[in-house]
Amino acid sequence: GDNYWVVLTDAQRKAIKSWLFLEEGNEEKALELMKEAADTEDSVDKHPITPGHILPARELLGDMYLRMNRPEE
Description:
By secondary structure, the protein is mainly alpha-helical. The protein has one domain (2-67). It is 67% helix and 0% strand. It contains three helices and no strands. The chain starts with a helix and ends in a 6-residue tail after the last helix.
């Protein structure tokens, strides 16, 4: 129901904010928030009539690790 959109919007908000923290040089806060975004996004199933996520939070987390030169994580 309506909770689906609230959860996804929350995940997207966290993902955006995490990139802002990274740009400000706060890597640990950026990672913490991006992990929360990924977990939040993973907590709901994809709605049956919507396309998949354009940039899934888990993928963004991987991108963040690469940007931080931490590919092993």
